[in-house]
Amino acid sequence: MGMAASVPHYTAEEIRKFPDDGLRYEVIRGELFVTPAPGTPHQRAVGELFLVLSPYVEAHQLGEVILSPFEVEFAEDTAVQPDLLVVPRERAARLQVERLLGVPSLAIEVISYSSKRTDRLQKRHLYLEEGVDEYWIFDPGLKRVERWRPRAPEPEIVTDRLVWEPHPGTPALVIELKPFFERVWRGFENPR
Question: Does residue 191 belong to any structural domain of this protein?
Fold first, then answer.
């Protein structure tokens, strides 16, 4: 009778010691996820989102928008790097120099070929289980956003206009997706 191979259980501290080799190392419930550097459309999408979100969050004193690479540590064996996150003002004390300890109000991932399974499955489960208010998955290839909220069995699929209302009484942020994705793909042929 053979013995089953043991699967390593990583901690956040262990992955922080990995080499700085251009790869993104994340750990979810002890499981290691490694993602190569993203391409131009991905980075343009992240930049565009930051340029839209940051002034809105600041103007309405909602907190702070942070770009990746930046770590969010949920537990000793769970640390990820969303492409963008919003740290709400009321959780600012959890923001450290190196990472956020705990839950952002909004986590955003921009899908790339190498990250789509992790972003749609493992990270979605993690963010929703941990209590992130909203999780957005921007898919530049399909030119759409999957908006996930806690307790929703399915995402809201947004293809035209993404409206974010983080607090009652706060004016909504509106992102027109057609021009957004045109800027993301400028100069390239969309593969779809």
Answer: no
Whole-number Å distance between alpha carbons of 2 and 91:
49
> What are 79-135's pLDDT values in tens digits?
999 999 999 999 999 999 999 999 999 999 999 877 888 888 899 999 999 999 999
CATH code at 95?
3.90.1570.10
Distance from C-alpha of 166 to C-alpha of 63, rounded to nearest angstrom: 11
Q: What does pTM read for this prediction?
A: 0.91
β-sheet bridge partners, residue 34: 25
Domain that holds residue 153: 39-185
Which amino acid does the sequence have at 141?
Answer: G
pLDDT tens-digit series, residues 52-62: 999 999 999 99
Q: Which tokens in the block code for residue 103? A: 């839950």
DSSP codes joined into one string, 136-182 = EEEETTTTEEEEE-TT-SSPEEESSEEEE--STTSPPEEEEHHHHHH
